[in-house]
Predict the 3D structure of the following.
Amino acid sequence: MEIRPATTADLDRMLELNNAAVPAVNELTIDEMAWFVEVAHCCLVAEVPGTPGPSALLVGIDGPSTPYASRFYAWFCGRFDRFLYVDRVVVDPSAYRLGVGRAFYEAFAATAVVGDGGHSHVCAEVNTVPRNERSLAFHDAMGFDRLEEYSPDGMDKAVMTFARPV
């Protein structure tokens, strides 16, 4: 498996992967996916031998400095001075159980700025409504602490927030 930075040439496949994973992640347009590739602190794809194009993606944001209108991202902005935020991880079912998620998180955490004024945590949220058992178990196994279940007013969605020190 090869983990590499995403490029604009990957956009169509990334969008296909993302939108096939709804409701575990929210649906995006091609312009929204292109925005992530442009402004994300870390936007990665994984290529698995024998499959054409990327089989997985991770979008990671530098918080709180990135202007991003997500209520869930804002929740972390109100609690941490500087953090890395996993906005989404999508893995095609054909690549399950190959260690892609772990490899993504390790690569993303390796981009942390350490020391005074650096990133303190890697943060993520996982759907509890609708429930994403696979991701909840993954974050528990990766040593993340469950912080709080959160549901913004007016949303039919709830998440469990997670953080792990860098």
Summary: The beta strands are 2-5, 42-47, 56-63, 83-91, 121-129, 145-150, 158-165. The helical segments are 11-20, 30-39, 71-77, 100-109, 133-141.
